[in-house]
Amino acid sequence: MDLEKIRVVQYGCGKMSKFTLRYLYEHGAQIVGAIDNNPAVIGQDVGDYAGLGTKVGTIISDDADRVLDDTDPDIAVMTLFSLVSDIYPHVIKCVERGINVVTTCEEAIYPWTTSAALTNQIDTIAKETDCTVTGSGMQDIYWINVIASVAGGVNRIDRIEGAVSYNVEDYGLALARVHGVDMTPDEFEQKLAHPDDIVPSYVWNSNEALVNRFGWTLRSNRQENVPYIAEQDTYSSTMGKTIPAGKVIGMSTVVTTETFQGPVIVTSQIGKVYGPDEGDLATWRILGEPDCEFELKKPDTPRHTCATMINRIPTVIDAPAGYVTAEKLRQVEYLSYPMQLYVGGGIW
Amino acid sequence: MDLEKIRVVQYGCGKMSKFTLRYLYEHGAQIVGAIDNNPAVIGQDVGDYAGLGTKVGTIISDDADRVLDDTDPDIAVMTLFSLVSDIYPHVIKCVERGINVVTTCEEAIYPWTTSAALTNQIDTIAKETDCTVTGSGMQDIYWINVIASVAGGVNRIDRIEGAVSYNVEDYGLALARVHGVDMTPDEFEQKLAHPDDIVPSYVWNSNEALVNRFGWTLRSNRQENVPYIAEQDTYSSTMGKTIPAGKVIGMSTVVTTETFQGPVIVTSQIGKVYGPDEGDLATWRILGEPDCEFELKKPDTPRHTCATMINRIPTVIDAPAGYVTAEKLRQVEYLSYPMQLYVGGGIW
User: Fold this and answer.
1) Got the DSSP string for A297-315?
2) Could you count the other beta carbons within 10 Å of the beta carbon of residue A155?
């Protein structure tokens, strides 16, 4: 048994990293580097920054090359951006040095078709340098692998329906506007229902991962924007006003995924102004024999995302080289013990 | 790739076997034998018996030894009884011949402490003859392995709380009486709350499996009977009367499981007279960081149990020899393809 600690660089020291740094620390990782370009955090000890109650001796730096050259990390925990094109240069810095990467980047959960060229470039370099790149977070478990777990008790799947959500209030005015908040249904239909360019939503990628998780092949993906109409007057702090019943309070991006084997996956990603008792949604139905429905109630999306990332580390380190999406990896396990015990066939 | 079909003996041709036989048939198993001692079914072709729309050529027989001697099954699907002491002689007939067994027997999900001697005897013989015995069904996934899947996105577990249920109306008058139906709370307290002999409930076994699934060790198990009081008048067809609000309509068997590592598991197995809109429950909370709660809504327990059993077959065939409980096996997978593809490293 190898009791060497797992060495980690935290790549991106924003809001999410306060969770990931603490979770790493609690599970016995050695935080050897931390990278961010925000002047407000550069120069801070990560122990102070993340409120660990102790200094770790590792200082947040904006010189990514220097951090990666002067440390010997097993893996970078990358909490940056939502698109593969944005994380690409940062991932390349890691994989050129043979450093594994696990990232919260939402598209990275299954970017094989939405960013095929970049993903294949990363895959090629990672195979040359013998490291692994994986996207993880909330979707890894609650939009993909738990659905597969639940389906283990199902005889026949005809259709899978999912609904996941986030609160538009958490992301500022620009996002509220592109979600149609305060529009009439007619305005929404004219301006947002039929965009010229479809930007694949996060559930586009997670649906593709589900298709591969079940061993099916993709026939088609179709995405629609559907307005979410207020059933009652709803106050939006972002808009600074009450949205009256009958107007739009957000939208649902519905991705319908067909497979050549028959089963269809329809997942709605809902961004709306939450009412006072609402929380995030993760509700799934499997239609077949038997039908079944399950719900994760008001999940704490940031903490689940960060816990999943950290719990993923042993399986990424143990994975074959290349860009390996999460649905192909060993199941992510709760870490009952310090994480090094889960690497290399220790506990799992 | 080995395209030899999986050969199966259906051991027990009662209510559940109508599902398991059809699921086996749909997933490409070869049903080579069928055993039951009920005169009403002996002599029937299993295709006729299970409504497959075709004869299979295999006749239900009450001569278990003859069936097992005259066929070469890879596995017996045993849908008999709830206690290991009851299935024991039937399991022995299989393992002495080197035939794998998967069984719905509820105690069999984790019988290492509740039936230690018999389980170790089965384990010893199975290792001599190179076959595997596993208990499966609803609990395998929805009381054990899905909890582990969901926990993959949790940083720290302090406590796990579960509630599962069944309808007392489905099991006759004797069961309704031992569940205290129509008693006053005082009568329940005197007659049922403190039994002299505690018969471990099914969640006693599944809690122990959960402890092992997370790599913890068992400090103690405690079981209590708690009355379920009617909040409104509730008609019981089994009792042939309406139970007034304030009287008992069933009971909850609560098992509290402590571990040496700290986490506590408290699972309630509820047997009560259902109201018109009620269904089976499988609700779980993980308390820690973050807290999370998930619910399988009104699960179709018989179909989930039977689908899980059949989907389990490839992992039981591939398992090491011995009595191998389900929490130690590879994850049970939905069978997108005929089941032989999942054995021996084909698809998984």
Assistant:
1) ES--HHHHHHHHHHHHHHH
2) 23
In angstroms, the CA A128 to CA B191 distance is: 72
* Distances from the Cα of B146 to the Cα of A334, B295, B341, angstroms: 12, 11, 24
What's the CA gap between A46 and A58, in Å, rounded?
6
Using H for helix, E for strand and C for coil, what is the string for A103-115?
A: ECCHHHHCCCCCC
Express each pLDDT in A46-75 by its tens digit: 999 999 999 999 999 999 999 999 999 999
Q: Does A158 touch chain B (CB under 8 A)?
A: no
Distances (CA, A) of A68 to A92, A124, A126, A339: 12, 20, 16, 22
Alpha carbon distance B19, B303 (integer Å): 7
pLDDT in tens, A124-133: 999 999 999 9
- A148 vs A136: CA distance, rounded Å: 16
pLDDT category at A345 given cuts 50, 70, 90 is confident
The b/e string for B169-197 (b: 16+ C-beta within 10 A; e otherwise) is beeeeebbbebbbbbeeeebeeebeeeee
| Residue B108 near residue B90 (C-beta atoms within 8 A) | no
Q: Does B333 touch chain A (CB under 8 A)?
A: yes
How far, in Å, CA of A231 to CA of A114, rounded? 35
User: Going by DSSP bridges, is the β-strand pair B30-35/B60-61 parallel, antiparallel, or unpaired?
Assistant: parallel
* Neighboring chain B residues of A138 at a CB cutoff of 8 Å: 153
DSSP A30: E
Q: What span, in angstroms and rounded, lies between the C-alpha atoms of B48 and A84?
A: 56
CB contact under 8 A, B310 and A146: no
pTM of the model: 0.95
Contact by Cβ (8 Å): B289, B147: no
Beta carbons of B11 and B90 less than 8 angstroms apart:
yes
Which one-letter DSSP state was computed for residue A170? G
pLDDT score at A276: 87
Alpha carbon distance A2, A340 (integer Å): 8
Planar angle of CA A315, A148, A282, nearest 5 degrees: 100
Our CA-based measurement puts residue B346 at a distance from the nearest CA of chain A, in whole angstroms, of: 12
Interface touch B146/A149, C-beta < 8 Å = yes
Per-residue three-class SS string for B22-77: HHHHHCCCEEEEEECCCCCCCCCEHHHHCCCCCCCCCEEECCHHHHHHHCCCCEEE
In order, the DSSP letters of B272-289 are E---TT---EEEEEEEEE
Q: Do the interacting molecules here have an ipTM over 0.90?
A: yes
> What residues of chain A lie within 8 A of the CB of B26, using their CB?
155-156
The distance in angstroms from the start CA to the end CA of chain A is 12
What's the Cα-to-Cα distance from B191 to each of A53, A184, B186, rounded to whole Å?
A: 54, 64, 9
Cis peptide before B276 (omega within 30 of 0): no
Residue A3's H or E segment, with its range, is none
- What is the tally of helices (H) and strands (E) in chain A? 11, 15
3 state DSSP class of A333: coil
A66-105 burial, b at 16+ Cβ within 10 Å, e below that, comes to ebbeebebbbbbbbbbebbeebbebbbbbbebebbbbbbb
- B334 with A297: Cβ contact below 8 A: no
